[in-house]
Amino acid sequence: MCATPTHSPATNLVGMNTFRSIVFSSVIAGFIVGLIVTAVQQFGTVPLILRAEVYEKAAEHKHEASAQPQAILVHDHADHDHGAEAWEPKDGLERNLYTAGANILTAIGFALLLCGFLAVRSGATGEPISWHEGLMWGLAGFAVFTIAPGLGLPPELPGVPTAPLLSRQIWWTIAVLATAAGLGLIVFRRSAPAAIAGVVLIMLPHLIGAPELEHVETNVPSSLSHQFVVAVTLTSLVFWSLLGSLTSAAFAYFDRPASA
Amino acid sequence: MSQSQTAQAQHLPVATRQVGRLAQSLMAMTLGLFIVGVVGFSHIDVIHNAAHDVRHSNAFPCH
Fold it and tell me: A40 at the B interface (CB within 8 A)?
């Protein structure tokens, strides 16, 4: 843990070695995982989204034909993403390129978050994180960012009416924070009271309940929605497993000179 | 520099390195959250439309 002769405290502090290692590892791992997940989505989630959009567009035409004020009441997002005439990528290659870009950015973002934890952890233990421990961290990410919020707010296809966006985003964030904190208490504070508090904390957002509409009317078949939940969850499992192991392997490589 | 100051300076690096590592990790995590926030949660229509399929596929609240 002592400063090595080659690294004076000043270079360690000003040189931002750890930050640089985290960014390199996250960009490389995020790029690879983003591309792989884009390919997986083409077989899993994307065909289901496209099928659901057929129902969504049919329902919008029906709404446009019926009385306008009622349409806005029932279908409150209609003016948000379609009526406003905002730019959107053309179907086909352009749309898939934006999807790939967004996947890569999301993967890099989550990798930065994950790698921050790995850096603190390896700094505390003085040992590099193995790819297998990284995989465990990735699975924790899967539980925190997919399973926990997905219990209250299952993955939704386009065309299925949902509660107001902001309320769902707030609940999603609370579920994520509570689950992360709960898991942290269970894993790192090895005591019975902490474990109990952790479990209660994980349950809390679900006991409060996610925002939902009282009455949901949609043309999207429930079998399609169910397939989508399975596809999203499995794709996410692939995403987090790969992200955890690849980010930790890359970080162990880049962080080596600084921690040696 | 007095004797005690030299001794102090020799002990400092361990602490500053640890704080430095924590601070740098927090910076990276904040950057990561910012990126995920913009791609997945921004209410700006153009960003929403570009990342539409990704938001649905990640089960981020969408629409």
Answer: no
Is A87 near chain B, with CB under 8 Å? yes
How far does B1 lie from chain A, in Å, by closest CA?
18
- The answer to whether the predicted template modeling score (pTM) of the entire model surpasses 0.80 is yes
CA separation, residue A219 to residues A39, A46, A48, A136, B25 (Å)? 28, 18, 14, 40, 47
Of B16, B36, B52, the CB nearest to A13: B16
Is ipTM strictly over 0.90?
no
Number of inter-chain CB pairs under 8 A, A vs B: 170
Q: Are A26 and B27 in contact (CB under 8 A)?
A: no
- Could you give the percent of chain B with pLDDT greater than 70? 70
Q: Let me know: does B38 contact A140? Beta carbons within 8 Å.
A: no
Domain ranges of chain A: 16-160+218-259, 163-212
Whether pLDDT at A211 is above 90? yes
Any A CB within 8 A of B8 CB: no
- CB proximity list for A179: less than 8 A, separation 6 or greater: A143, A144, A148, A201, A202, A205
Q: Please, what is the average pLDDT of chain A?
A: 88
Q: What share of chain A has pLDDT > 70, as a percent?
A: 84
Phi–psi pair at A134, nearest 5 degrees: -60, -40
* Choice between A154 and A14, residue whose per-residue pLDDT is larger: A154
CB nearest to A87's CB, from B21, B46, B53: B46
Q: Is the minimum CB–CB distance between A260 and chain B shorter than 8 Å?
A: no
Q: Where are the domains of chain B?
A: 3-57
Q: What angle do CA B34, B37, B43 make, to 5 degrees?
A: 130
